[in-house]
Structures are given as C-alpha cells and as structure tokens.
Design brief:
The protein is α+β, with helices and mostly antiparallel strands. The chain has a single domain (about 10-150), classed as Cytidine Deaminase, domain 2, CATH 3.40.140. Helices cover about 25% and strands about 25% of the residues. The chain has three helices and seven strands; from the N terminus they run E-H-E-E-H-E-E-H-E-E. The relative contact order is 0.20.
Length: about 160
Amino acid sequence: MTLKEINIRYKEYGSIGELPEDDRKLALEAVKATENSYSPYSGFHVGAALRLSNGKTVCGSNQENIAYPSGLCAERTAMFHASHSYPDAAIEAIAIAASQNGKICEEPASPCGACRQVMAEYQTRSGHDMRIILAGTGKVLVFEKVDDILPFIFDSLK
C-alpha cells in the first residue's frame, strides 16, 4: 500500500468586489442569473455565468420540476446553452452564485457532482483550463481548473 495525497490550490476573496475586474463582472452576472431561477420547491435559486473564448457571456439558472429529478442545475443549463449556441467557443470561466429568501447566500454554493463532470468534459474538449468562481457574500472561492474541484475526472472511455 502507498499513501498518497492530493493538494488543491484555490484563492479566497472576502467579497465579489475584491475580484479582478473580469471575474467580478462574471460573478455579478451569476448573481443576476439567480433571479431567473425557477425553484418553487426548494427555494434555492442558483445562477451561473460563463465567459466564452469568443467574448460572449452566457447565463443559466436552476430549473426545478414537480416531477423530481426532472429539473436541471444552473451550471448545466448555461453550459448546454453555450455549447448549442457557440459550439466552437471554449468556456474560459464559470461563476456560480445562490440565493435564498431574496438574499445572496453568505457561503458560496458548490456545484454538484454531475455539474463538475460536465465542466470536466467541456474543459477536456476545449483543451484549456476552465476557471471556477464560487461567489458568496461572505467569501468567494476561485479555482484555476476543474481538476481542483473534481480530482478524479471520469475519462475512462477515451
């Protein structure tokens, strides 16, 4: 047996306002995207904003359905929309924000495993790292690539 260790590097900011300008704009777009969430069952409104290599910004929000689990997360709605509308553009960065009771959450919302795997697919497909910005009012976490939030990416079919 060999004991191994994984180290994950990330940056922590005290607020969205402390982010570099491009990341701040993207995080604010994610905050705005929470307003388009359809989440009458959980009351947990999530918004995602993508910065694409062609300069476009694409947003998405979580969409719930009474026939659970027929809804979809904000991250995947944004990524699937971007892939459809701009198939040749790489996703350079994704910002994610969540709100409850009309207020942005203090703690950043973390993507589910399915969303992380879809991020990994688009990162691999583009050949470029995808920056991940998890925005909350108490702190903002920034990861330089999907591998930092999903260290054992499923890619066994290659």
